[in-house]
Design goal:
The complex is a heterodimer of chains A (753) and B (266).
Chain A lengths: L1 H5 L3 H6 L1 E4 L5 H21 L10 H22 L2 E8 L5 E7 L14 H20 L1 E7 L3 E4 L14 H11 L5 E8 L10 H9 L4 E5 L8 E8 L3 E3 L3 E11 L5 E8 L2 E9 L7 E8 L4 E9 L12 E9 L4 E6 L4 H11 L5 E9 L2 E5 L15 H4 L4 E4 L9 H12 L4 E5 L30 E2 L4 E4 L15 H9 L7 E2 L9 E8 L2 E11 L2 E6 L6 H4 L7 H15 L5 E4 L4 E3 L3 E8 L11 E7 L5 E8 L6 E7 L4 E11 L2 E13 L12 H11 L3 E3 L6 H4 L8 E7 L4 H21 L3
Parallel strand pairs in A: 3-4, 3-6, 6-7, 7-35, 9-15, 16-17, 16-19, 19-20, 20-26, 28-34
Antiparallel strand pairs in A: 1-2, 2-36, 4-5, 8-10, 10-13, 11-12, 11-14, 14-15, 17-18, 21-23, 22-24, 24-25, 25-26, 27-29, 29-32, 30-31, 30-33, 31-32, 33-34
Chain B lengths: L1 H21 L7 E2 L2 E2 L15 E4 L22 H13 L9 E4 L10 E5 L8 H13 L2 E5 L3 H15 L6 E2 L24 H4 L11 E6 L5 E7 L3 H6 L8 H18 L3
Parallel strand pairs in B: 3-4, 5-6, 6-9
Antiparallel strand pairs in B: 1-2, 7-8, 8-9
Classes of the chains: A alpha/beta (753), B alpha/beta (266).
């Protein structure tokens, strides 16, 4: 219909440039149009008060408008309007036809046919023939790599990955010396190499090559559940409780109950029953589990296949967690003997994962040290050198007045969090927080809540505690696994022995628990991130009653302090911290190794020698030199090819001259034949975006035959400029007829014929 | 008129009885040296309170042995005089007056340090022993003092074995942290009660040698500090008595402070 009325395909109008071929100036057209309109208005104006004239007022205006429109339209045709459009010169251009050959193309969701079969059918049903009549056609298939084909039948749909970016770059590179007019991509859009990268897109766009895409496969399954993402910390302390955030999406199973299971080999580490939400709505669930003993762990996280599920291979993923054998240390300084000190120590002493070193001011001039590693540790009191304080991963400041610390020590405390990335916990006490002058100190911003400078905020009154909204998902406050039961468990805890009044939480802080005093809820436990580290406040020195006032077998006091202490230290980085953006390489080979290197004062080291020794699954090892990353002090990177599937270990060794800066380990894993199982529905969004950003068009499989006509309109390759006349369009004549007919009908109705 | 006088007399008598009864929890006992005055800050809320264990007495046939049972020996002057020293010599926030706790309610769990005197006369029933066991295993600390000789030791052990049937009482070595937590107390000697003024001896009965013993938990932490064949309580009580030798009182204070400091740190 469009082409009948407008003579040319819509693509001509999209790509064409409007021009007037008549040669007369546009201002002359405007002047004449104005004159004609005015001339036609004159008789109406002159007879506006003539009672015998039947058409006046708005009716006269309508008739005048129709006449003027008609006159201007005819006048416009004299200027010969046309569209100037670039078209590919026949037989002088190359068109690349790229067919997706990945495993997802073998899914039979095209009316019983596989996507690959549909692609071959489209090509063989005339598209290839038509293209060949106008262009030189190069046929490719893409999976892990790009491969030239002789015939469409060679597409099998068996490759274990789809790398569309690589394919586009490859086609562009192969055709660098020939006029490439367009790229035609037949795919389900299931790219699993991170999508189309910006560099590829820029290259294609700079050469003005339109990428036309033909989408294959169903856009939505009727019945499927897919694990979309799983987020687990790459590192964990031994025997600590950690959370896996599992995001899943489903269609056709709304309100069904399913079990999310987390396994290490055959051992189930955690599971949770959930009710599935609405179709296509991403649903994120948290599963708590114990990290167990030290060592690398490959966790399988997923849901058992459901009844009649269309894709059963996207229900499980693997994630790696390196459970570290290190025992982070916490320094606890307390300003006076108190029961809380004793019971915190007892709770932490039972913890095999974190060690606590404490210094207690027993008298005005005496400090009692416990948990020291060697006799001289803390001999001279609180550390006044960065290297002494930064050997700890966590710091607890009990009821110590700010004046106890020198200005240099105060700055060191800030740097402990900000630069070293340690965890800092403030406790309540009669000499702590605002009663200890912290409200007027320069370290005020380290506190997650505001405090004033009042000196009577510490109250020796018992108070009930409850979990705050922010604490419901927190690992620190999880005394029992079930989140609802946990809320109730907190309500049943014995009252705390005392509390300290503070102000409101600061922006970015999270209140995990509250106490209720005088009918008012106030922050008990709040946390925030600060610099590279994190800080928390526990506005009491009276949680010891949770130990003494509950049955002997109750472990809530120990569990709370274990979890709080782990939170303090778990994210405190070592001096050499290695990582990789992707620990599980699904059908990929390239692994990026990153390392952040700091000296004993935790200042970035930019002149270090950093090497990665990568141990492969077959036992062989390779030394990889890492290079400093420009503009990021202390950061080193390297890219390495993991040639075989399996588990790898990378050990990073950093030196500066003869000085050993430190070592670190991380694990990664290459898995093949996995990526294509995920995101296997047609990714129409990606294909459409690719087309629209390159000046191409997205076609459904059923509309692919239109492609042969549209493809000629391209700016790439060898083109000619064609002027397409617009004066003789059927729509123009139809418009003229309609204007005249409307005027005639109105005149008849108003009796002025 | 006569009936009004009768009624008034009855009301006054009732009021007097009520007031006396109300003072029961914090009685102003007269000690050997005269009445003890309640300090003005007696109601101050503090971190630490000297908590005296009230136990049923062996001689009392299972009861608390009347108002002045053996649990209340030296009470309250020893307690109050001792805490003045704790206040002066440490940073512990201490109340000026003591609390009395027993094993018949859960109130004891609010007092992680308790002092038992003359435990050579205590007689805990099974229920009380079980509560004491729970208290100690949760982290409570018991210091016992002022019992002498083999007979009182046997009586002490009878109740202690109900508390811990399977835990040994061990002699404390000098290196134990309880003797070093604040003061280094390698040189300890027998601390006598004022009975020495009459007997001329620093020991009582056949308890010639001071014994520093204890019961540990599974992690090697001292739960019960046993001061046998000595009378630290008397030394606290009579520290202000010119006749009582200073070196005994001084050691008694240091011992007491170390036991409290240990209980607050371990």
């Amino acid at each position: 219909m469009f082409e009948f009325l407008f003579s040319y395909p819509s693509r001509v109008y999209e790509k064409g440039q409007f021009v007037l071929l008549g040669g007369w100036p546009v201002w002359a057209w405007a002047l004449l149009a104005l004159g004609v309109a005015a001339g036609l208005a004159w008789p109406y104006f002159r007879s506006r008060r003539d009672a015998e004239i039947r058409v006046q007022g708005w009716k006269a205006g309508v008739l005048w408008a129709l006449q003027a429109l008609m006159a201007i339209l005819l006048l416009s045709l004299l200027w010969q309007p046309a569209l100037l459009v670039a078209t590919l010169k026949p037989q002088q251009n190359v068109v690349a036809v790229v067919v997706d050959d990945s495993k997802s193309m073998s899914i039979a969701d095209e009316g019983g046919k596989t996507r690959a079969a549909t692609a071959k059918e489209i090509l063989n049903a005339g598209l290839l023939e038509q293209l060949k009549k106008q262009f030189q056609v190069r046929l490719y298939k893409v999976g892990r790599s790009l491969e030239r084909l002789e015939k469409a039948e060679d597409v099998q749909g068996t490759q274990t990955a789809t790398r569309l970016s690589d394919a586009l770059r490859g086609v562009a590179a192969e055709s660098a010396s020939v006029p490439l007019g367009a790229i035609v991509l037949l795919s389900d859009g299931g790219d699993n190499a991170g999508g189309i990268d910006l560099a590829t897109l820029s290259e294609v766009r700079s050469r003005r090559i339109p990428v036309h895409t033909v989408g294959l496969g169903r856009e939505k399954y009727d019945r499927d559940l897919e694990i979309v993402a799983v987020d687990v910390p790459a590192r964990a302390l031994a025997d600590s409780r950690i959370t896996a955030q599992v995001t899943l999406r489903q269609t056709g199973y709304t309100k069904n109950k399913v079990n999310i299971t987390l396994r290490d080999g055959t051992r189930i580490l955690g599971q949770q029953t959930i009710v599935l939400k609405a179709d296509n709505e991403p649903q994120t669930e948290s599963i708590l589990f114990n990290s167990g003993p030290a060592g690398p762990k490959a966790l399988q996280i997923g849901v058992a296949p459901l009844e009649n599920e269309e894709n059963r291979a996207n229900n499980q993923v693997t994630r790696l967690v390196n459970v570290e054998a290190t025992k982070p240390r916490i320094l606890y300084i307390e300003g006076e003997p108190k029961w809380e000190y004793k019971f915190i120590r007892r709770a932490m002493e039972d913890d095999k994962t974190v060690s606590i070193t404490s210094m207690l001011r027993t008298t005005q001039n005496k400090i009692y040290r416990q948990g020291i590693a060697e006799p001289k540790e803390l001999e001279n009191g609180f550390p006044d050198k960065a290297e002494d304080l930064f050997q700890y991963q966590g710091l607890i400041i009990g009821g110590v007045e700010i004046g106890y610390f020198t200005a240099a020590q105060q700055e060191l405390i800030r740097q402990f969090v900000d630069r070293r990335g340690g965890g800092l916990l403030f406790l309540g006490g009669r000499n702590g927080l605002s009663d200890g002058g912290w409200g007027k100190s320069g370290l005020l911003d380290l506190l997650p809540v505001s405090i004033g400078d009042r000196r009577d905020t510490f109250k020796r009154e018992r108070a009930k505690v409850e979990l705050a909204v922010g604490g419901r998902d927190s690992l620190i406050a999880r005394l029992v696994e079930n989140p609802d039961a946990n809320i109730e468990r907190w309500k049943k805890l014995p009252e705390i022995e005392n509390y300290q009044e503070t102000g409101a939480p600061k922006p970015g802080a999270v209140v995990l628990a509250e106490f209720i005093a005088g009918g008012k809820r106030q922050p008990l436990l709040a946390t925030q991130n600060y610099g590279r580290g994190r800080t928390a406040i526990l506005a009491t020195a009276g949680t010891w009653r949770w130990q003494m006032l509950q049955p002997l077998e109750d472990k809530s006091h120990e569990v709370f302090w274990d979890q709080l202490s782990r939170w303090l230290v778990t994210s405190s980085p070592p001096r050499v911290l290695s990582s990789t953006p992707k620990q599980v390489l699904t059908d990929e080979t390239k692994v990026q190794i990153r390392a952040e290197v700091r000296d004993k004062n935790y200042l970035p080291v930019s002149d270090g020698q950093v090497q990665a020794r990568v141990l492969s699954p077959d036992g062989s090892s390779e030394l990889v030199e890492m290079r400093p990353e420009p503009l990021s002090a202390g950061q080193y990177v390297a890219t390495w090819d993991a040639e075989k599937p399996g588990a790898y270990v990378a050990e990073i060794v950093a030196k500066r001259g003869e000085e050993e800066l430190g070592t670190d380990l991380f694990n990664f894993r290459r898995e093949d034949g996995v990526a294509e199982n995920f995101g296997s529905e047609q990714n129409r969004e990606l294909l459409e975006k690719l087309s629209s950003q390159t000046g191409g068009v997205y076609y459904r499989g059923t509309d692919a035959s239109k492609l042969a006509k549209d493809i000629s309109y391209s700016e790439a390759g060898i083109t000619v400029r064609e002027a397409k006349d617009l004066w003789n369009l059927p729509i123009v004549f139809l418009l003229i007829l309609m204007i005249r007919a409307t005027e005639w009908m109105l005149r008849r109705r108003w009796g002025v014929v | 008129m006569r009936s009004r006088i009768w009624i008034l007399s009855l009301v006054l008598a009732f009021a007097a009885i009520s007031l006396t009864y109300a003072q029961r929890g914090r009685r102003s006992f007269d000690d050997e040296d005269g009445p003890v005055i309640t300090p003005p800050d007696a109601n101050e809320k503090t971190e630490f309170t000297f908590s005296r264990l009230r136990y049923p007495s062996y001689r009392g046939g299972g009861g608390y042995w009347g108002v002045r049972g053996s649990w209340s020996t030296d009470y309250p002057k020893a307690d109050r005089q001792f805490v003045q020293g704790v206040r002066r010599l440490t940073r512990i926030h201490v109340r000026s007056v003591e609390d009395v706790v027993d094993l018949d309610s859960d109130e004891i769990f609010n007092h992680p340090w308790i002092y038992g005197v003359e435990v050579g006369h205590w007689d805990l029933n099974e229920k009380q022993a079980a509560k004491m066991r729970e208290y100690l295993l949760k982290g409570g600390f018991l210091m016992v003092d002022d019992f002498h000789g083999s007979i009182e030791w046997e009586i002490f052990l009878q109740s202690l074995s109900r508390v811990f049937p399977d835990r040994a009482v061990v002699d404390l070595a000098n290196k134990e942290p309880v003797f070093h937590v604040l003061y280094d107390l390698d040189e300890r000697f027998q601390i006598p009660g004022i009975v020495m003024f009459y007997t001329g001896q620093t020991y009582e009965q056949d308890g010639v040698e001071a014994k520093w013993r204890g019961v540990f938990d599974d992690k090697g932490r001292l739960m019960v500090g046993i001061c046998h064949n000595m009378d630290i309580g008397d030394a606290w009580e009579h520290a202000d008595m010119p006749r009582y030798p200073e070196h005994y009182a001084s050691l008694a204070y240091r011992i007491g402070i170390n036991y409290i400091m240990y209980a607050m740190t371990h």
